[in-house]
Amino acid sequence: MPEVQPYPERVKICCLGAGYVGGPTMTVIAKFCPDIKVTVCDLNEKRIAAWNSDSLPIYEPGLKEVVDESRGRNLFFSTDIDAAIRDSTIIFVSVNTPTKKSGVGAGEAADLTYWELAARQIAAVCNASDDKSPKIIVEKSTVPVKTADAMAQVMAASCLSTNLQVLSNPEFLAEGTAMDDLFRPDRVLVGGAQTPQGLAAIDYLCKVYRRWVPTEQVLTMNLWSAELSKLTANAFLAQRISSINSVSSLCEATGANVAEVAHAIGVDTRIGPKFLKASVGFGGSCFQKDILNLVYICRSFGLPEVAQYWHQVILMNDHQKNRFAKKIVSSMFNTVSGKKIAILGFAFKKDTGDTRETPAIDVCKALLQERAQLSIFDPEVSREQITVELGQEEMELVETPGDVNASCAGAHALAIITEWDVFKSLDYQRIYESMSKPAFIFDGRNMLDHDKLEEMGFKVFTIGKGKKQPDIDDS
Ligand code: NAD
Ligand code: UGA
To answer: What is the spatial distance between Cα 326 and Cα 255, in angstroms, rounded to a whole number?
Structure first.
């Protein structure tokens, strides 16, 4: 049996990638393990400067308080990646893994360029260092199954002298609730090689998590299961949304109400109530990219039927986003040209400023194609960010007054894209009076009191609510 090289008693951690995952996850490790030095690194100097300032680079409720608690004590943000790698035993890699834009697998496969560059840098630093103690490389990014194998080979090719164990430790946090998800995760997953050194590495990482996560929730398994579990979890979550969204069309056609159907099926403990909210469509940086990645992997392994099955989840989501935009146009007498439409919310969900793959992009672009004039309001998304998503040219027809009531004033319609709580408590009576008539509301999140709005005079359109059924007495 090969001898196991021990890992040091004193744990030191670094993370490559200070984004939506690297920043919050490392902050929480630093909070619960004040004796562990945690350094978060990034190539992006501006991002690191923001992490070191009072104005953090991402908006996440509760994050700032935890950063303030640990930063400078045992939590550090730095651009000196080499030094952090040299100094640490556990090296998390939490870099972006977007969908490939060109070459083989373009539009589906994961682009592992950033991951591979990070792996090469780790190997080069270890190779040049006099310290030959073993290190653990942790895949925090979401990657295709078998990535750990490829990365281990890449690193071994340039660094034979240091034992580098690759573990898979996918992250399940959701934006907007990241702190709660990290404080009380449903589970922490750690996959690794089932060899003596691999098992020692798994145990070393698990001990860190066990400081605040109950032991039975820290799951260990082989590498490939851990990598595939992450893609599968996102595919299942997105599938539930596409499933209920598909039913929402049927509800509209039949007079059923999707909220009632979701409740009725969700109380079945085998189905459960979560992730059954019909909406304008799911967004975010991961669902689409991870499913496309899964589709690509299935195809690569000669499983076209499986690939097609999962691809339908994306097609249904595209359909839902298009359907919403089309409904706005058709309800407003088939033309929105020159009409002002207030877009309430641009982020892909509430409590985040993240706009990656937000359904707002599809809806706004479709309305702009029809020459509508948009007035966009989101409490956390700047005009600059909206411009990045829609393109400079499109912004000619877009205003962003920075005040929700100003966005609504004079509008022919309001379209709710993001379920920000603040949209629930607006003075809709006042807004109605300030709008052009007939005044329309398209509630893409089914979050408002539709009966009340109709009483005020609004023409209300929702997702998945069929036309009101006549009372039995009326028939
Ligand atoms: P992000 O784009 O916010 O952050 C990635 C960061 O990595 C960027 O700041 C980039 O500059 C940096 N980077 C790239 N190459 C680097 C290198 N070689 N060295 C140092 N830094 C480098 O991405 P994110 O949202 O944090 O996602 C990261 C990974 O986590 C992705 O694989 C994603 O699928 C996965 N994930 C994301 C979420 C989420 O909610 N955003 C949740 C779970 C998993
Ligand atoms: C999702 C998963 O929930 C996380 O577990 C995972 O770690 C993460 O992806 C990832 O890998 O990046 P996130 O995208 O941040 O997290 O947010 P979700 O709460 O999952 O929402 C995703 C999208 O689905 C949003 O646009 C949201 O509005 C929409 N959604 C969600 C619905 O339309 N209906 C629902 O019932 C739930």
So the answer is: 20
CB-based contacts of 261: which residues, under 8 Å, 6+ apart?
Answer: 244, 247, 251, 464
Residue 364, phi then psi, degrees to nearest 5: -65, -45
| pTM for this predicted structure | 0.96
Ligand 1 centre from 93 Cα, in Å? 8
Torsion angle, CA of 298/304/309/311, rounded to 10 degrees? 70
Query: Which residue has its alpha carbon closest to ligand 1 atom 12?
Result: 17
CA distance 407 to 178: 30
Residue 284 Cα to ligand 2 middle (Å): 7
379, two tokens:
């409490």
**Measured on CA atoms in the order 449, 453, 455, 456, is the torsion positive or negative?**
positive
Tokens linked to 235: 């595919």
The per-residue DSSP string of 61-110 comes to TTHHHHHHHHBTTTEEEES-HHHHHHH-SEEEE-----B--SSTTTTTSB
388: left (phi over 0), alpha (psi -120 to 50) or beta: alpha
CB atoms within 10 A of CB 418: 30
Q: Which atom of ligand 2 is nearest to the CA of 241?
A: 34
Please tell me the number of Cα atoms within 13 Å of 322 on its side-chain side. 7
Are the C-beta atoms of 418 and 348 separated by less than 8 Å?
A: yes
Torsion angles phi and psi, residue 233, rounded to 5? -60, -45
Choosing from 147, 155, 285 the residue with most ligand 1 atoms within 8 A of its CB, the one to mutate for a pocket test is 285
413 three-state secondary structure? strand
Catalytically annotated residues: 286
Q: How far is CA 206 from the centre of its chain?
A: 25
Q: Which one-letter DSSP state was computed for residue 374?
A: E
CA-nearest residue, atom 22 of ligand 1: 17
Mean pLDDT by 10 residues, the chain (475 residues): 87 98 98 98 98 96 97 98 98 95 91 94 94 96 91 90 95 97 98 97 98 98 96 98 98 96 98 98 96 96 98 98 97 97 98 97 98 98 98 96 98 98 98 98 97 97 79 43
